[in-house]
Design brief:
Blueprint (H helix, E strand, L loop, with lengths): L1 H31 L4 H9 L3 H9 L8 H25 L1
Helix pairs in contact: 1-4, 2-3, 3-4
Amino acid sequence: MIYNYFTKISQKVYKMDEKQELLTRIAELIKKAPADWVETAAREMKKSEQSIYAYARGDRGVRQGKHKEVYKILTRLVEQSEKEIKELLTN
């Protein structure tokens, strides 16, 4: 019983570390993202801008995986932005 209890606790801590790492990556992507990233994410997720900020901070929607959806949108927006910048610099 004790072994199972500590195993479950260690697994829970591991999941929290993954969540924190993803939230750290989101914070780094926000710095690179275009200025209208919140409006774009809100439109795609059909949520308010305040909700998107809360998802990005990890304050809300963690159980439902909303922060993962924000991460996917942010990575796509940053890739598009970097691609556009490269195209402009090559011309």
